[in-house]
Specification:
The chain is built from 14 helices and 23 strands. By secondary structure, the protein is of the alpha/beta class. The protein folds into three domains: about 40 residues, no CATH class; about 375 residues, Alpha-Beta Complex (Spore Coat Polysaccharide Biosynthesis Protein SpsA, Chain A); about 60 residues, Ribbon (Seminal Fluid Protein  PDC-109 (Domain B)). Helix 5 links the parallel strand 3 and strand 4. The radius of gyration is 25 Å and the shape is globular. The N and C termini lie far apart (about 70 Å).
């Protein structure tokens, strides 16, 4: 074993006030020593103190901030009912110029769904049995084709929407293997990149790293806000501005079955407003829906969690429109310019971490066992993807219809909301709307009130990205409900 490497790591951790991680080193086997050294090498212990101080300052000043409604005037706020067609065209142009990439936040497991595996692998039970990953991949393929058709009549022009999947250490290899087994669902392998979100050591009440065993520090994911440092660490951002010429990024969570990756309307709206940062929202169903909302904190754009808004504030309405002043619900669907991420976000990453008090397993030397406490015994450092909103000088807010673009898959089947059942039904209802809107003749009557899974309708993303083209593709056809339209099974 390299004694110089051991000395180097000891010096690093002693200098950072964390030398206790070597407490049991002399008692370890060679394999255990190597395991500990490898882990210690991966931790940026020099930065840990700054992150902790930032988190403490954020917590201490939390009650001093002034919260006010966001200014939803037409110049900064988009609506799907009034959005000019030019925004969609502008977004499609950027996509056709290969300037747009997507990032899928897919670090979560399907535990709440009763599923043992990465959430993106989960099938919500559509007639096609497609997983959440497959639905997104096929929408990307269709959008690439639409953008290609918009600029090339010869079919020789190639549009690429690079897809980046942020995994977690626990599901990274499973996710990669899943895409490989399924040939990336028709996407080109070189345009799909996987990168794990970061992890940080858990700390005790004295700000010391908690040891989970004699040769292992207790680690925890750094939150979905860790995406920024993870992108930088993995070299993805360098790839954007030195190789691919990517200018705009669309980031969204895996657990929205209706998400529109690289949505041209959203991208185009943000570009038209010269926005450095954008947030797609849906309006709250009522004042007390448990969802974070767009607001201003000390005059800066932010997300305020529902638990931080009192009843009177939550129920405030605009006297002219009657809309909730705090009604723009956050759905984890964001736009960023690469310049904003590189020049503004990365230099300020240390300032956006929070402390979360948790029950953290720890090593007990008396019993030589790892103990899981029954009360909170330490803190995890984490950040949220929207923590960078206050850094934005030109924020754009874009409202969309819930029934068209937001079908969260968070709770197990049988739950009253945000479940595979509700998402399945929303996709089915959307398919019926699209076909009806296109003027296609339907047989077997109106099935809107039927919820039996045998009556589900489905239109493959490869047939239509957002309802476009159905009239031309199915002109003169008669469709029997329920229907399932794939490229290979047109009537």
């Amino acid at each position: 074993m390299d004694e110089n490497a051991i000395t180097f790591q000891r010096d690093r951790y002693n200098k950072a006030g964390q030398g206790h991680v070597f407490q049991y080193f002399s008692e370890l086997s060679s394999t255990e020593k190597m395991c500990l050294l490898n882990q210690l090498e991966s931790i940026e212990v020099e930065n840990l103190g700054r992150l902790l101080e930032s988190a403490k300052n954020s917590q201490a000043g939390g009650e001093c901030h002034q919260i006010s409604p966001y200014d939803y005037n037409p110049d900064v706020y988009g609506s799907s009912d009034t959005l000019p067609k030019s925004c969609h065209v502008l977004g499609l142009k950027a996509i056709a110029s290969n300037e747009v990439a997507v990032i899928i936040l897919a670090g979560g497991q399907g535990t709440r769904l009763g599923f043992d595996g990465p959430k993106g692998i989960y099938s919500i039970g559509l007639p096609s049995q497609k997983s959440l990953f497959q639905l997104i991949a096929e929408r990307i393929r269709k959008l690439q084709q639409l953008a290609m058709d918009s600029v090339s009549s010869t079919g020789c022009y190639k549009v690429i929407i690079p897809c980046y999947v942020m995994t977690s250490p626990m599901n990274h290899q499973q996710t990669v293997n899943y895409f490989e087994r399924n040939n990336y669902f028709g996407l080109e392998k070189e345009n799909v990149t996987f990168f794990p979100q970061g992890v940080l050591p858990c700390l005790d009440e004295n700000n010391k790293i908690i040891m989970e065993s004699r040769f292992q520090c207790s680690m925890a994911p750094d939150g979905n806000g860790g995406i920024y440092s993870a992108m930088h660490r993995s070299g993805i951002m360098q790839d954007w501005y030195s190789k691919r010429n990517i200018k705009y990024i669309h980031v969204f969570a895996i657990d929205n079955a209706l998400v529109r990756p690289a949505d041209p309307a959203f991208v185009g709206f943000c570009i038209s407003r010269n926005a450095d940062c954008g947030n797609k929202v849906v309006w709250k169903t009522d004042a007390h829906e448990q969802v974070g909302v767009m607001a201003l904190r000390d005059g800066k754009p932010c997300i305020v969690e529902y638990s931080d808004i009192d009843t009177d504030t939550a129920e405030q309405r605009d006297p002219n429109t009657g809309k909730l002043l705090y009604g723009a619900g956050n759905i984890c669907n964001h736009f960023f310019t690469v310049d904003f991420l590189r020049d503004v976000v990365l230099p300020n990453m240390n300032a956006i971490y929070h402390m979360a008090r948790k029950k953290i397993p720890f090593y007990d030397s008396e019993t030589n066992q790892t103990i899981t406490p029954t009360t909170n015994n330490g803190v995890k450092l984490e950040s949220f993807i929207f923590d960078v909103f206050p850094l934005s000088d030109r924020m754009a807010i874009y409202e969309v219809k819930r029934n068209e673009e937001f079908a969260p898959v968070k709770n197990a089947s049988g739950s009253p909301a945000d479940s595979p059942d509700s998402a399945r039904q929303m996709i089915s209802d959307q398919a019926l709307r699209w076909v009806t809107r296109a003027g296609i003749i339907l047989h077997n009557g109106d099935r809107k009130e039927k919820t039996d899974d045998n009556n589900l309708c489905e239109i493959s993303p490869l047939v239509s990205y957002a309802g476009e083209g159905i009239e031309e593709q199915l002109k003169g056809q008669e469709i029997v409900c329920p229907f399932h339209l794939e490229i290979s099974n047109y009537p």
